[in-house]
Write a structure and sequence with these properties.
The chain is an alpha+beta fold. Helices cover 26% and strands 40% of the residues. It contains 4 helices and 10 strands. Strands 1, 2, 3, 4 and 5 form a 5-stranded antiparallel sheet that branches. Strands 6, 7, 8, 9 and 10 form a 5-stranded antiparallel sheet that branches. The protein is elongated and about 55 Å long. It catalyses: 2 pyruvate + H(+) = (2S)-2-acetolactate + CO2. It comes from Pseudorhodobacter antarcticus. Catalyzes the conversion of 2 pyruvate molecules into acetolactate in the first common step of the biosynthetic pathway of the branched-amino acids such as leucine, isoleucine, and valine. Belongs to the acetolactate synthase small subunit family.
């Protein structure tokens, strides 16, 4: 992720009250894009972002309709409100795109991510890592005399918090799937 400038003198401490160099608010949005499952579609979507200098914080893709040959791309991105509107409009103009939903503004949604953490440690650090894993409901999926691999699902913020706590205890590697998200309700 690229660093974002925070407006000088801002009294807000929210991570979501970020500002670009012009003072405009930077918002994080989760977009769900339904596309034809065919060669080159993902490259076209990614090309839209890279060609215009937009950043992608998270990207997941999977086929969701085998018979209709459709895939769902979930993109987490940041930008000013004007940039987000522009991204959605440009995505909607790509020919194999059928639907673009902004889960951030469409109402409540559920977001989850899967992560694996390799933590190496002995003695008290090993015991503390296991204790914290229990608190965070992380599962031990591999264990040796010198390391653990923990598996956890949760919000990106939960994944980040667990990683921050594991770093001083011997965190060696992280693998993350990226955000999967659905709107809540009917």
């Amino acid at each position: 992720m690229s660093p974002l400038n925070i407006k000088q003198g801002s009294t807000s401490h929210s991570a979501y009250d970020l500002r670009d160099p012009n003072g405009d608010v930077i918002e994080q949005h989760t977009l769900a894009v339904l596309v034809d499952n065919e060669s080159g579609v993902l490259a076209r979507v990614i090309g839209l972002f890279s060609g215009r200098g937009y950043n992608i914080d998270s990207l997941t893709v999977a086929e969701v309709d085998h018979e209709g040959h459709r895939s769902r791309i979930t993109i987490v991105t940041r930008g000013t409100p004007q940039v987000i509107v522009q991204i959605k409009a440009q995505l909607g103009r790509i020919v194999p795109v059928h639907e673009v939903h902004d889960l951030t503004v469409d109402g409540p949604s559920v977001q989850r991510e899967l992560a694996l953490f390799k933590v190496a440690g002995k003695g008290d650090a090993r015991i503390e890592a296991l204790r914290l894993a229990e608190i965070f409901r992380a599962n031990v999926v591999d264990s040796t005399l010198e390391s653990f691999v923990f598996e956890m699902t949760g919000t990106p913020e939960k994944i980040d918090a667990f990683a921050d706590l594991m770093r001083p205890l011997g965190l060696r590697e992280i693998a993350r799937t990226g955000v999967a998200a659905l709107s809540r309700g009917a």
